[in-house]
Design brief:
Blueprint (H helix, E strand, L loop, with lengths): L1 E8 L2 H13 L7 E6 L12 E3 L3 E3 L7 H4 L4 E5 L3 E6 L1 H8 L4 H7 L5 H12 L3 E8 L3 H10 L3 E7 L1
Antiparallel strand pairs: 1-7, 1-8, 2-6, 2-7, 3-4, 5-6
């Protein structure tokens, strides 16, 4: 049975290092997702998403190099939260459930609604959300990896 491991980072550098380590462990862009609140104060498209083909995509200073590590970066506007930037499988899910917010997208990944609301609030307050889709038995190693890079609110749920 597949599981979703989830955690919140306060610093983009922590999230970047976690994604690098996950990729070094063999996790792919189809298994790792990142979501963060866009920065309306930055330039670019007004949602904190700046695109420079020569440097790859950067997320308006919010996520720095993570966008270069993951494909499928998108900008979304979620009612009640505002502009978000997302990469990975959760980005596609969020674009289909914009009205349900981050919590609605997490529900599709096996995260219970009440925990999804906690994570949505973390993103609303500037946290960087990371999810990793793992096979049963891999969750403890991934939880430890995320915690080791500074993630909090780390837990796993069956998909």
């Amino acid at each position: 049975m597949a599981r979703t491991v989830i955690g919140v980072f306060d610093e983009k550098e922590q999230a970047e290092q976690a994604v690098r380590q996950l990729k070094a462990e063999g996790y792919t862009e189809q298994e790792i997702s990142i979501v963060a609140k866009g920065d309306q104060e930055q330039g670019g498209d007004g949602m904190g998403l700046n695109m420079d083909v020569s440097e790859g995509m950067t997320w308006g200073g919010t996520l720095g190099g993570i966008a270069g590590l993951l494909a499928g970066v998108g900008a979304l506007a979620i009612p009640g939260i505002g502009p978000l930037v997302a990469a990975g499988p959760l980005a596609a899910t969020l674009s289909g459930v914009a009205a349900g917010g981050v919590a609605g997208g997490l529900l599709d990944m096996g995260i219970p609604e009440e925990r999804g609301n906690v994570y949505e609030n973390e993103v609303r307050q500037g946290g960087i959300l990371c999810t990793v889709e793992v096979e049963d038995g891999e969750e403890q190693q991934v939880e430890e990896l995320l915690r080791g890079q500074g993630a909090r609110e780390v837990e796993s749920h069956p998909r």
